[in-house]
Amino acid sequence: MSLAVDIVKREGRRPTEAFERAKLHASILAACLSVRTPEGQADSVAQAVCDAVSEWLAQRPEVTSQDIRRVASTHLKRYHPEAAYLYEQHRMVI
Questions:
Q1: CA angle at 71 for the pair 66 and 76, rounded to the nearest 5°
Q2: CB count, 10 Å around CB of 82?
Q3: pTM given for the model
Q4: Strands (E), the chain
Q5: b/e string for 41-51 if b means 16 or more Cβ within 10 A?
Q6: Is 71 helix (H, G, I), strand (E, B) or coil?
Q7: Are 84 and 73 in contact (CB under 8 A)?
Q8: Contact by Cβ (8 Å): 3, 54
Q9: CA 21 – CA 94 distance, rounded (Å)
Q10: Contact, 46 vs 28, CB < 8 A?
Q11: Distance between CA atoms of residues 78 and 56, nearest Å
């Protein structure tokens, strides 16, 4: 299910797109699996984070992709701090 929320991509340099819960779920799941979380637990964590983000989005017609990443990270830290660190740092060049 997608909420009717427009996501502003990369500070407006790319076209907006509709929020896709599946896309958020996949990125949270990937972060969890990257730190060797069992698949079932990773899926549960991703579902919980997506639920929290969806609730946050419910009253917002438009947000940035950075806003979603920040809110998702905040909730992911509660469930899996190690995966949250990886999720937050995914664009950093080492």
A1: 120
A2: 15
A3: 0.85
A4: 6-9, 14-18, 62-64
A5: ebbebbebbbe
A6: helix
A7: yes
A8: yes
A9: 29
A10: yes
A11: 16
The Cα-based distances of 58 to 2, 12, 38 in angstroms read 11, 22, 30
The answer to whether 87 touches 27, Cβ cutoff 8 Å, is: yes
At 9-33, the pLDDT tens digits run 866 677 788 999 999 999 999 999 9
User: How is residue 89 written in tokens?
Assistant: 């740092």
Q: How far is CA 43 from CA 30, 56, 63, 74, in A?
A: 10, 20, 25, 17
Residues 89 and 81: their CA atoms lie apart, in Å, by: 12
Q: How many CB atoms lie within 10 A of CB 37?
A: 20
What letter does residue 11 receive in the DSSP assignment? G
